[in-house]
Amino acid sequence: MNANKLASPRSMKSDLSRVDAHAVKPGEYDELPELTEDMLARAKVNKGGRPLSPNPRKLKRLRAERIEGLKAVHEKVRAEPLLPMTPEDIQAEIDAYRTEQRRAAFLIPTRPFRRCCGAARQGG
Fold it and tell me: Where are the domains of the chain?
C-alpha cells in the first residue's frame, strides 16, 4: 500500500553515522553553566493545559450551562431513542450533507459578482 510511502524521500543533511560515533568528552560539559540556588529560586514551573481564566466564576457558570444542556439532550435521547441505522442509511445521510454543503457553497459567492468585460461597456 502506498499510504505509508512519502511523496518525496526525506533529505537529511546530517551525517548520522558520524553523530552516533561521537563520544561526549568532559570538556564539552564546560559549555553549560552550573545551576545555582539563585537560578532555582527564580525558576517558574509551567504546567501544560489551558491558561487560567481571569474570571473563574464565568467559567463555572459556562460549565454548569454546558452540563445542563448535555443532561437535557441525554434525557431527550432516553425518552425517544434513535433507531439503528444501516450502512446504507449512514451513506445516504453523508451524501445529503455533502450535497447541501455544495449547494450552499455555490449559492454564496466568495467574491463580488462582476459582469463580463463586454457587458460592462454597453454605452461605449
Answer: 55-81
